Amino acid sequence: MTIKKVLVLPGDGIGPEIVTEAVKVVQAMALPIEWEYGLIGGSAVDAVGIPYPETTQQLARAADAVLLGAVGGPKWDPLPRFQRPEQGLLAIRKDLGLFANLRPAVLYPPLVGASTLRPEVVEGLDLLIVRELTGDVYFGEPRGIEMRDGERVGFNTMIYRESEIRRIARVAFEAARRRRRRVCSVDKMNVLETSQLWREVVEEVAREYPDVTLTHLLVDNAAMQLVRAPTAFDVIVTGNMFGDILSDEAAMLTGSIGMLPSASLDGAGKGLYEPCHGSAPDIAGKGVANPLATILSAALMLRYSFGWEEEAAAIERAVRKVLADGRRTPDIAAAGEPVVGTAQMGDAVVAALR
Ligand code: NAD
């Protein structure tokens, strides 16, 4: 194993608390990792006036992977746009060329009651959404609001280059090879030319992966199938806007925001790993935040940036074990169940690794 450099960006709110636990878990495995720390978001604004400072940029570019807590909070809400903590997140994603967002949605058996779906529908859920992050109607030009024939008209451009489709498709097929070897591509090809090209290019890429099964779904049907039969999915690959909506829908299937990790990849090994939730200012500093989404994000880092599959799986097994043993932070505890704090949950995962 070669030595990997990880930049840790704790961020704001519960960020420092949950990141501490994730680092604790990975350090307990005695892996060849060099850790560095930097500022991002509101804490960077407080220190140097901008949310993605030059020193953090240099550390991020030199790192093999970035582990991030969360950014933002009411303290920084009144600031002008360039100083808003979320701008730091957008800037680091752009700076590192992170075009693929991976969000696993896994239902852990002891938490089946947290889902709004019936247990028999959602039991065994284990899917991965691969969302394109830098293109589509969110960034397409021309865009704007203008006067036409005496009334205001708003317009955006949905656009994908085949190179953009090809690279996100490859990420999805590669991810499927580490899982159950099935990719479902989601588009709207019955109405949109962008989607017709999307489907053609995904099928071309699929020929490079004869061991992976490719299917297609129209986005409206995909939204239905996600709540009707979510366990039928393995990897879902889709564009920026459809992925934005479907990944939140998939997140809700599990019912617990404190459990959901994410990875944003550049396609060449570098990645930014963070929980799907925000900085939870309402519980910051109380030692009650659930660190599992961040711990699971660190597992994704070992898998997708470093190729350490066994170590990643060991962390995921340890998380399953602590849940099976009944450890619960308040956000995932049923009424009357005993709860543990952030650090105790981290300690329990470390103990379960052994
Ligand atoms: P949030 O995800 O921070 O919190 C929503 C609810 O979930 C809160 O009740 C919170 O206490 C709870 N929660 C979230 N994570 C939890 C955890 N690990 N353990 C236990 N409970 C948890 O979303 P919000 O309240 O809408 O946003 C708060 C701040 O976070 C805002 O400033 C927002 O801009 C920012 N935010 C940042 C990110 C990010 O850094 N990627 C993402 C979303 C929101």
Structure description:
It is a single chain. By secondary structure, the chain is of the alpha/beta class. It folds into two domains: 188 residues, Isopropylmalate Dehydrogenase (3-Layer(aba) Sandwich); 127 residues, Isopropylmalate Dehydrogenase. It is 40% helix and 19% strand. The strands form two sheets. Strands 2-1-3-12-11-4-5-10-8-9 form a ten-stranded mixed sheet, with helices on both faces. Strand 8, helix 7 and strand 9 form a beta-alpha-beta unit. Helix 1 crosses helix 10, helix 1 packs parallel to helix 12 and helix 10 packs antiparallel against helix 11. The structure holds nicotinamide-adenine-dinucleotide (NAD). The site of nicotinamide-adenine-dinucleotide has 22 residues, from helix 4.
What order do the helices and strands come in, and which of them pair?
Layout: E1 4-11, H1 15-27, E2 33-37, H2 42-48, H3 54-62, E3 65-70, H4 85-95, E4 100-106, H5 119-122, E5 126-132, E6 144-148, E7 151-155, H6 162-177, E8 182-187, H7 193-206, E9 213-218, H8 219-228, E10 235-238, H9 240-254, E11 261-265, E12 271-275, H10 292-304, H11 309-324, H12 342-353
Helix pairs in contact: 1-10, 1-12, 6-7, 8-9, 10-11, 11-12
This protein binds nicotinamide-adenine-dinucleotide (NAD).
Structure class: alpha/beta
Report the total helices: 12
Level-2 CATH architecture of the largest domain: 3-Layer(aba) Sandwich
Estimate the global geometry from the Cα principal axes: globular
Which radius of gyration do the C-alpha atoms yield? 20 Å
| Distance linking N and C termini | 21 Å
CATH fold call of the largest domain: Isopropylmalate Dehydrogenase
- What's the CATH H-level homologous superfamily of the largest domain? Isopropylmalate Dehydrogenase
Q: Biggest β-sheet: count, sense, barrel?
A: 10 strands, mixed
Which molecules are bound besides the chains?
nicotinamide-adenine-dinucleotide
Share of helix, binned = 25-40%
Count of individual domains: 2
What do the pLDDT scores average to? Answer: 96
Unreliable residue runs: none
